[in-house]
Amino acid sequence: MKQKIRSEKEEIGGSYGECGQKSIIESETGEIKGHYLNATAGNCDEMMKRAAFARELGVPIVMHDYLTGGFTANTTLAHYCRDNGLLLHIHRAMHAVIDRQKNHGMHFRVLAKALRMSGGDHIHSGTVVGKLEGEREITLGFVDLLRDDFIEKDRSRGIYFTQDWVSLPGVLPVASGGIHVWHMPALTEIFGDDSVLQFGGGTLGHPWGNAPGAVANRVALEACVQARNEGRDLATEGNEIIREAAKWSPELAAACEVWKEIKFEFQAMDTLDTDKDKDKKR
């Protein structure tokens, strides 16, 4: 039994062990760094073991797939994270099986509200502009349901009744999936300050390596935030803002060259029902 426990911990440690380097990076940058260590497991006991081990390593955040793991397990983990100073990132794997077809299942806004009640600090919400599609107004509707205290009824955004969360903690939306530096103006305008922007391939795909990729994204973000605060229109001036910033950031200039032709063109499936749609169903 001791051998089995040791082997399981070594197996987890193999994927978690690189986090020990974060102290070096933190000292170089002066910023707190972390990695979303995945605590999702086949049973609740193993999930809690992984969360506890992540805490032992000193990481600031863990991740959980709340739909595959289940709401009870997710709430258990959320309470543990809140009590032990860990952030909880929520992944929504399996959501498309539930919310993508209009003829069955339920809308993601319902799943998002259920997650807010279950517990978590931020959750994938689609990007509007990347590969994780979503109609803009609908996405903004459930983003407000995630992070605001009081949301007025607004059928144009898919909010069919006024929601008062009273003092229930909010959840930050996470934009992730197929996004890169050219998307930054739109992401800044759509999601605002209280959000998380995750660039995976948009960072690692930089021709000079991971660190320059991170620099490019940071420069693009700060340029867009500064431009917005100065009163510039990100919707119409976004590309020009990025080009201006690229003149003094070689990392951003290289990223702009790599991603300039990358687009995801498709019809959004997540749309509001129109009267014509309702007539067809009848």
UniProtKB/TrEMBL annotation:
Residues 26-259 form the Ribulose bisphosphate carboxylase large subunit C-terminal domain. InterPro entries: RuBisCO, RuBisCO_lsu_C, RuBisCO_lsu_C_sf. GO terms for molecular function: magnesium ion binding; ribulose-bisphosphate carboxylase activity. It holds the Pfam family RuBisCO_large. It comes from the Eukaryota. This is Ribulose bisphosphate carboxylase large subunit C-terminal domain-containing protein. It comes from Mikania micrantha.
